[in-house]
Specification:
There is one protein chain. With about 120 residues, the chain is an alpha/beta fold. Helices cover about 40% and strands about 20% of the residues. Helix 1 packs across helix 2 and helix 3 crosses helix 4. It is globular.
Length: about 120
């Protein structure tokens, strides 16, 4: 019936995905449990105002170091490449929180640097 050969496709998903009430504060604990202490954090516009207080308190309580933080509004390949290769060398993981731009920026940056995606 189908004359086309089967095409093998691969989709990479985040290393750690948690959904539910109270999870924002616990991100720091999840990271430290995985031995990921120095992070790059990419946030969607407006996300910091909504969840920043709980997020940063969870990081502080678990000794998570934010080696790089950026609000994402430009999703161009050039912007991602420039940022990814300028991240501090001690960066253990890349965290993306917010809308699609921030998540895509984080995922592609992590791919370029072969880091964990959170």
């Amino acid at each position: 019936m189908f004359n086309q050969p089967y095409i093998n496709k691969q989709i990479n998903i985040p290393y750690l995905l948690k959904i539910g009430n109270g999870k924002i504060y616990k991100i720091g604990k999840y990271l430290i449990d995985k031995n990921l202490q120095n992070i790059a954090l990419f946030l969607g516009e407006g996300t910091e105002e909504l969840i920043g207080e709980k997020l940063y308190q969870g990081f502080k309580d678990n000794n998570i170091n934010i080696a790089h933080k950026q609000i994402i509004n430009d999703i161009s390949i050039e912007a991602i490449n420039k940022t990814a290769f300028q991240l501090p060398p001690e960066t253990d993981a890349i965290i993306g929180i917010g809308g699609g731009k921030a998540l895509d920026f984080a995922k592609y940056s992590a791919h370029l640097l072969d880091l964990d995606i959170e």
